[in-house]
Every structure is written in structure tokens, then in C-alpha cells.
Amino acid sequence: MTDYRVDLDPAGGNWPALTELRALLADQKVSAGHLVLGCLRRIAAVDGAIHAVLAADPTAMVQARECDQRLANGSTRPLEGIPVLVNDNVDTAGVATTAGSRLLAGSPPRTDADIVRRLRAAGAVILGKTNLSEWGNFRGTCSSEGWSAVGGQTRNPYVLDRSPWGSSAGSAAAVAAGIAPLAIGTETDGELVRPAAACGVVGLKPALGLLPNRGIVPISSAQDTPGLLAGTVADAAYALAALVRMPTPDIDTTLAGRRIGLWPGTRPTRNALDRLDRVADMLTSTGAKVVAVDIPEAPDRFGDALSATIAEFAPSLNAYLRTRPDAPADLAAVLAANRADPRELALFGQDLMEAAAAVTDDDRRIARAGRARARAWANQALDDALTGLDCVLAPTGPPAWPIDHELGDPFVRTTSTIPALAGRPNISIPVGLEGDLPVGVSIFGPADTATVLCVAAGIAACWPRSTPRFLSRQLTSTS
Question: Does the predicted model carry a pTM greater than 0.85?
Fold first, then answer.
């Protein structure tokens, strides 16, 4: 066997494309064991700075050896031997799944989440679990994204005192840092695409229902979905195809003739508008037609969506907790246990959970109607914006802000809510740096994921990939 080494230099992981890795594995020019060993060495080299990985799966090398045996026997599974990290709110049988809470750190799940079953069926090696905003950042306001009582604070690999955003903070930071070529995150509204933008990677939130959400610690069973963090759009598309058991789609990156609507979001900053202007200039130079679009604010529909999410939380969580040995029985037990644990509530409270616990059956009945109104409005708003266009492009969010465990995170308006409410795909791609920090744009609108992937790939090709430098600045907290 050729002693092929994946270049994992200290300044940032340099993974080949998944298709190239898969070909190298098939030709036995690299082994799955070599890839896993490279990931473990990378964790040892850089994760002490960013705290993205909660735990490596102790069976990862065993999984890799089994993959190598199957590869020697001619396995054609698309992810055979590819190491993948998984958000720690996604069940992995026999390996702790905590959602960042010490209350779930006892006995691990008995079974894999459906998305993990699909990963294993496609041949992937489950490398380990990544840190996240505790309970998917649905515990309390004034929180710090990327912080959990189990894993502490995940840090942005570009500048260590900056937020990785969240809740899929560890998955995004780990892919950015070259720890693994692929990671699973989750999203209810922006929790995957926003950390992708903050950490300079690709975040693919697929259409609702395309990937299964059973076995994921929930926020809203009506809106939660797993998704993918990857280095490139092509890698995200390849992995998605493997997980939905379809051939890899042809990704046409040609932008000439594409009709793209630019939406700055609501109340954009001057920096966001300047960034969007630069993106528009680049797209126009490729032959794309770029036009301004507007998606009006709808405070009543946003209020409907928030009320629905709060109403859906307790039933969703209680159903999940019944699947876990040694877990609290229900949301009321979670609230009581948090009050008794000084570590859990050390930085911020649990007012969101308390609001969810106070919802009545009548409230839930009203909230179901509100959910339907919000979804119908979001789909109509996107259909109206897409008139004559292929997709909408918008800023995913601002560059990462300083971590502040005293004041928590600032309130930031983002563009993820409307595609999330509509259940449509949303892809965030990096479009360079502002200073030392990555920025991203989101591509969404059509219900068809393949169209969004093609446009995203074409736009991403206009910017060279950057790698993090793990810059140190004065940290606001040592937690």
C-alpha cells in the first residue's frame, strides 16, 4: 500500500475532496485507519485551543479496520472509510449524547439516530461527538453560543476570542480546523448555516424531511432537521446524495445566465450592504443577472413561529427523554435538576425552557394554527421573491463577535428564518474574510435542493478557500 498522507498542517487541515478521498480509499492508496489516525492527531494538535470535539468515539479505529476490510473486498458504498463528526445532540448508540447538558451525561442512547444509521449504512466512520450550544441554544436568553456545561466554550478557529455562533458550533469549528472533512449539525432556525458562516465553511440545511430527525434531541419536531458541514459545496452535495441514497448530482457551476435576487435582510448594516455589493459585482462579472429583491417583514408571522416553537418544545423533548435511560423524566424534571446544579446555570438562566413548561393545551392548539400561518406565509414570501429568478442570495450574518460570558451574545437579525419556516433548503457559503474573520452568504428560495446546490457551488467558486490561523486575542472568559 502506498504511504499516502493527508496533509494536516498546523495552520489548517487540507483535506482532499470527498470524491478524491473515496477514490484513494478504493485504490488502497490510503487506508481508513490512516484517515482516522490523521483526525485523532489533528484533534490532539488543535482542539485544545477551540474545544470543538467533546469526545472521540473509542471504536473509531475498529470501525476503520472494518471499512478497510470491506474496501479490500470491493465495497462501493459512497462514504466507506470517510471519518465524520456528529453533533452531540444526535444519538449514537453506546456513546454519550448530552446535548451539552450534564443531565444527559449518564447512560448513552441504546440506538443510533436515523441519520447516524444512514451514515453507517453509507460506510462512514463515526469519529466522535462535537460540542454545541447547550440544548440547541433553547434553554435561556442571554446565552453564549457554543457554550455547554459539558464541553465549555467552543471558540472560533480564526480568532479564538470570537464566537463560533451555534448551535452547531463544534461541528463547524472542527471542519474549519481540518479535524474532519465532514460533520453533521442540526438546525431549527439558522443553527447550522450561521456557525458555518462564522467559521468559514459550507453549511447545508436541506429541505425539511429530506433527512430524518428521529433520535435528535429536539427543539421543534415540526422544524428540526439534521444537515451537513463541509469544506466545499461539492463535498456537501456528495454526502447528501449518499445519505438520501441517490446518485451524486451533477453540479453545474456555470453562473452565466443565472438570475439571482439579492436580499440584504431586514435592517442591514452598512458593512452588510457593502459586502453584498461586492458579491453582486463578482456575480455580474460572471454573466449572472443580479437584481434587488425585498421580502417584507411580517412581525405577526414571526410571532406565530416563536409561539409555536415554544409550544412544541415540551412535547418534543418529553417524547425524546422517554427513549433515554437515566435521563430526567420530562421538562419539569430538567428544570428542577438545572436549579440544583450550580454549573448548569452559572452563566445564564433557563427562561426559554420555563416558558415552554408553562404552555397549556389551549396554547398548543392556538400555536398549531400559528405554525400553519407562519409556514404558509414563508412559502408565499419566497415564491413572490423568486418571480423570474433562480434563487435568493442574502448575508448569512455578521462576522463573529467577541465571546462575552457576562452579557451573552448580541441580538443579531439573520436571514435564516424565512427558509427555515418554509422548510426549504438553505446553503451558507464562505465569501472571503473581513479582517481576520470569515463572512458568508446564504442561497435559498427554491424548494428543490439541487438548484440551490448548483447556484451555491458557482458562487463559492468565485472565492478562494481560507484557512484559520487560531489567532489569540484577549479572552473575556476562561470558561
Answer: yes
